[in-house]
Design brief:
The chain has 403 residues and is an alpha+beta fold. It has 13 helices and 17 strands. Strands 3-2-1-6-5-4 form a six-stranded antiparallel β-sheet, sandwiched between helices.
């Protein structure tokens, strides 16, 4: 109970102190568990390296960055499980996830003098608390935004990242996860999602071109989408409403888009398409045949072509189904020899990763890495992926959860 009160005290300290003091406050919380040498790692923008604070421990020992591949911190981040390694002096080093719902922010590590089951459980709770403190503090200061950066963001990328919701979200068996590349230079792709009254709404956008102008156009499209969604505009009328709201403001630019709605109680997925690639649906180890849909014109063309009438595609998802939305920068990526990545290769890798048992956010991270490696890390266009997983009706998922 003393440790629980200490964590509650940590929350009160965070309310009164500077938002930049989160790591120091967490170190004080770790001390109540017999922990010391605490380090907070945050994942960088392209999900490859965990960046540490502090940069050196109290004894002056430097703290290096930790790759997601081949390190204990990276394993903890990928698996979202507590890891422990014994030390020569009888102590142990613990690594715990720093996450809020499904949003993987990083990893917390500390040395613990005499770990026991209660201490391990409290260390995991400290990791959850760390996520809340980092997210809250990030609204008031730039420290944690900067900690995530291995290099400077372009202005366009700064604008795009400011538009995004959390990269991953989960609710009673439904998970959404998204990623953008090139993370530090993205300037045209974007995605959005929200949960309202049992409906998950999600959308992917791809603005023509690249750079600041494309980022401005993409931001306009996302704003129009949120405005229409919050006015409860039905899916068939969504794109026409968005297009008319932004008519004349996009100049000569246009935006392709796909917007979808999932009824989490029934698994009914519906979507409309504005010049955008169709989703891929994974079920029972393979891909479902593509569902034919007549797309509307891209957004931004209402003044030239009139009303955008949207037909709606539907599919009844089964528990465990995964749906992948993507922009053309993924499938049109080319290797140094000029070979296209292609839809078939994307589908093959999606099937392989979806059969791995990994978390949806980790599946997505690996898909993005595969696409980047195919191109020699030289993207010719923005590449965005948005993954939706439906585990079943919330009541059914809750009943299957261990007590």
């Amino acid at each position: 109970m003393t440790s629980v009160r200490a964590l509650a005290h940590l929350l009160r300290e965070a309310q009164a102190g500077s938002p930049e003091d989160v790591v120091a406050n967490l170190a004080n919380g770790a001390a109540t568990l017999g922990g010391h040498d605490l380090v907070l790692y945050l994942i960088d923008y392209d999900q490859q390296v965990l960046q540490p604070t502090p940069e050196q421990l109290a004894n002056g020992e430097p703290v290096p960055t930790a790759s997601v591949h081949g390190t204990m911190a990276g394993r903890c981040f990928a698996t979202q499980a507590l890891l422990e390694a014994p030390l020569d002096d009888g102590c142990a080093q613990l690594w715990v996830p720093v996450s809020e719902r499904a949003e993987r922010l990083g990893v917390l590590t500390m040395t613990v003098d005499a770990p026991d089951d209660q201490g391990r459980a409290l260390a995991v709770e400290l990791g959850l608390l760390a996520a809340l403190l980092v997210l809250t503090a990030s609204a008031y200061c730039d420290r944690f935004h900067l900690q995530r950066r291995r290099k400077d963001l372009s202005l366009a990328a700064e604008m795009q990242w400011g538009l995004l919701p959390p990269l991953s979200f989960s609710f009673e068996g439904t998970t959404v996860a998204g990623l953008l590349e090139p993370a530090y230079e993205v300037g045209g792709d974007c995605f959005d999602y929200a949960l309202n009254e049992g409906i998950v709404s999600l959308a992917v956008f791809d603005a023509m071109g690249h750079g600041v102008h494309s980022s401005v156009v993409s931001g306009l499209a996302v704003g129009a989408y949120r405005h229409a969604r919050r006015k409860n505009v039905p899916l068939p009328a969504l794109f026409d409403t968005m297009d008319r709201a932004s008519a004349g403001l996009m100049g000569d630019s246009f935006v392709t888009a796909l917007a979808a709605e999932l009824d989490v109680a029934t698994g009914r997925l519906s979507w409309v398409c504005a010049g955008h690639p169709s989703p891929l649906i994974f079920r029972d180890g393979s891909m479902l045949p593509e569902i034919a849909l007549s797309p509307t014109l891209p957004l931004g063309l209402a003044l030239s072509f009139g009303e955008l009438e949207s037909s709606v595609a539907q599919v009844a998802l089964q528990p465990g189904d995964r749906v992948l939305l993507y922009t053309d920068g993924v499938v049109e990526a080319r290797d140094p020899a000029g070979e296209e990545f292609g839809l078939g290769r994307l589908a093959d890798h999606f099937v392989r990763e979806s059969s791995s048992g990994l978390l949806p956010s980790e599946i997505l991270r690996r898909l993005v890495r595969t696409c980047l490696e195919f191109q020699g890390a030289q993207l010719r266009d923005d590449a965005t992926l948005l993954l939706l997983e439906w585990a079943g009706p919330p009541q059914q998922v809750a009943a299957q959860r261990p007590a």
